[in-house]
Amino acid sequence: MLQVKNLNIYHKKDLRPLVSDLSFTLNDGDKAAMIGEEGNGKSTLLKLLYDPALVADYVEYDGEIIQNHLVCGYLPQELAPEDKAKTVYAFLSEEPAFSETDYRELASQAGKLGISADMLYSDTRMEHLSGGEKVKIQLIRILCRRPNVFLLDEPSNDIDIDTLQWLEDFINSCSFPVLYISHDETLLEHTANMVIHMEQLKRKTESHCTVLRMNYSNYVTNRRNSLERQERLAREEKAAYEKQQERFRRIYEKVEYQQDIISRQNPGGGRLLKKKMHAVKSMERRFERQAENMTQRPETEEAIFFRFAQGDGIPAGKWVIDYELPLLTAGDQELARNIRLQLRGPEKVCIIGKNGVGKTTLLRKIAEELLSRTDISAAYMPQNYEELLPADRTPVEYLSQTWDKEENTRIRTYLGSMKYTVQEMEHTIRDLSGGQKAKLLLLKMSMEHRNVLILDEPTRNFSPLSGPVIRDMIRSFPGAVISVSHDRKYIQEVCDRVLELSSEGLRTVEQ
User: Fold this and answer.
1) Which of 234, 314, 370, 456 has the fewest CB atoms within 10 Å of its CB?
2) CATH number of the domain that residue 74 is part of
C-alpha cells in the first residue's frame, strides 16, 4: 500500500504551489491515472514518491509519504544524460536483479515487448535506440526488480501500437498498484480505474487536486456534467440575486427620498422612517451574507487556445513531395528498401510502424528535402525537441525576430493563450516541461506561416485536456502534414492516409 497524506509541494523558483493538501491511498489492483496540463507538477510528484532526492534542487514539500517497505518500479519520462551514453547491456546490468533473472524469462519479456533477446546484451548505446526501444529496455529493467508498485511517467510515449496493446494488458492484469502519467486518451479509457487530476488555477497561483475512484471515461463525463450544472446554477442564482438587488435598491431609494423630504414638524414620521431604514440596512446585510453562499462559477484549468495562422495553405493540385529512397539505413544497419512517398495538396499523412523500423530516421530525411525547397515553406518538429530549441534562451527570446515592443507584446499574448505564466515566459527553455517545449515549436511554426509541417509524435506531450485542441488544430491546418505517430485518436481524427513502414518499404493501411 502506498499512502500520501496532506502533501504540499512548492516550487522554489516561483514560490508557487504545485500540489496542495493531496491525500490518497493506492491498494493492490488500483490503476491510478495522473492527468493535468503540462508543467503542473505531475512528473515532480512521481519523482518525489520514488526518491525525494530527484526533486530536492527545485521543490520543497511537507506532508507524509508512507510506502511500508515497497519495492518501486519507476519509469522516468526521459533517460538521464549519463544513462543515454551507456550501452544497453551496461544499462541493464546496473540493476543487480538483471543478472539474477533467468535468460528464458528475459527472452519471454523481450518477445512480449517486440524486441529480440539479443538486444538485451547489445553494445549499442542507449542514445542510439529509437524512442520506443528506450522505453522497452527500461521496462525490462524495471520488471527484473519484481516491484510491488509501479510509478510510470508517460509509459506510452514513443512505443508502437502493438506494444501499446501489451502495455494496456499489463496495466489491467497487474495485481499491484500502478500510478501512471499519460496523455494517451485511449490508454486512459482502457485502463484507469482511479483518476488523480492536478490543476493549476488563477494563473497558476493555486493548486487543486481531484482524486476519484472511477474509470477515466466516467470521470470525464461526470466532470463535464458537474461543471455544466454548477455553471447553470451559478447563472440562475446570479440572475435571481440581481433581480432581488434591483427591488432592494428601489426600496432603499424610496425610504431615503422620504427621509430627505419629511418635515421637521413631523418627528413621529421621521422616527418611523428611521426604523424603516434600519430594517432596510438589515436586509442589505442579509443579502450580502446570501451572496457569499451563492454557487460560484466553476474554477477550472482551461485547455490551451491555439490555431495555426491561416495563410495560403497548399493548392489541392500541387505536388508537395514525390520521394524515393532505395535504401534506408541507420549507421551500418539496413532498415528498409524501396521507399516511395507521394503527397499532393493539403493532405494529412501519418507513418506508423514497429519501434526501431526507422520512422524517425525516414522523417528526418524527408524533412531535409522539404526544408531546402523554396516553392513551399516547411517546418519540422523532431521527436527530441532539444535538436531545435536553444536551452539557455527564454521562450520570448526564442520567438523574437525584431525584438521591438510590439512584437514582444504579441509574443507574450500568444504564450498566454498557450497557458504560460509571466514567470514561465522568463524561464530558460531547459526548465520547461516537454509539453511546454512542444507548444513553443508549434507557435513558431504558426508565427512563420509555414504551409508544410513535418511532425514526429506531435501529440506525445500534451495533456488529455489539450490533446483535442492539438488534433483539431492540425486537422484544420490548410497546408500539408507528414507525421509519425502512435496516438490512436490522432490517427483516427486527423489523418487522411496512414502508411506503415516495414523492411519492405511503405504500404497503405486501411483505417
Assistant:
1) 234
2) 3.40.50.300
Q: Tell whether 194 and 327 lie within a shared domain.
A: no
Residues 476-497: what's their mean pLDDT?
Answer: 94
* 17, amino acid identity: P
Q: How many CA atoms does the CB half-sphere of 173 hold within 13 Å?
A: 6
Residue 419 lies in a domain: yes
Contact 379, 450 (CB under 8 A): yes
Q: Identify the CA nearest to 353 among candidates 505, 490, 246.
A: 505
Kindly report, residue by residue over 97-151, the tens digit of the pLDDT.
Answer: 999 999 999 999 999 898 999 999 999 999 988 888 999 999 999 999 999 999 9
Q: Name residue 2's beta-bridge partners.
A: 26
- Interval 168-217: pLDDT, tens: 999 999 999 999 999 889 999 999 999 999 988 776 678 889 999 999 99
How far apart are the C-alpha atoms of 456 and 177, rounded to whole Å? 32
Indicate if 152 and 20 belong to the same structural domain. Answer: yes
Report in angstroms the alpha-carbon separations of 374 from 11, 346, 451: 46, 17, 12
Domain for residue 208, yes or no? yes
- pLDDT tens track for 289-329: 777 776 665 555 455 555 665 556 899 889 999 999 999 99
Task: Find the helix or strand (DSSP H, E) in which 75 lies.
Answer: strand 72-75
* Residue entry with cell 525584438: 403
Lowest pLDDT segment from 38-52, 201-215, 386-400, 402-416: 201-215
**H/E run at residue 314:** none
Q: How many domains does the chain have?
A: 3
Cell readout for 117 is 533477446
> Which DSSP letter does residue 364 get?
H
User: Residue 55 and residue 46: Cα distance in Å, rounded?
Assistant: 10
Q: Are residues 280 and 363 in the same domain?
A: no
Residue at grid coordinates 495560403: 312
- Residue 30 corresponds to which amino acid? D
Supply 421's cell numbers. Answer: 505564466
Which ranges of 4-95 does DSSP label H, i.e. alpha helix?
A: 42-50, 81-84, 88-93
Rg, Å, the chain Cα set: 29
Q: Which domain holds residue 72?
A: 2-223
Q: Contact, 485 vs 413, CB < 8 A?
A: no
- Please state, in angstroms and rounded to a whole number, the distance separating the CA atoms of residues 432 and 442: 15
- CA–CA dist 412, 394 (Å, integer): 12
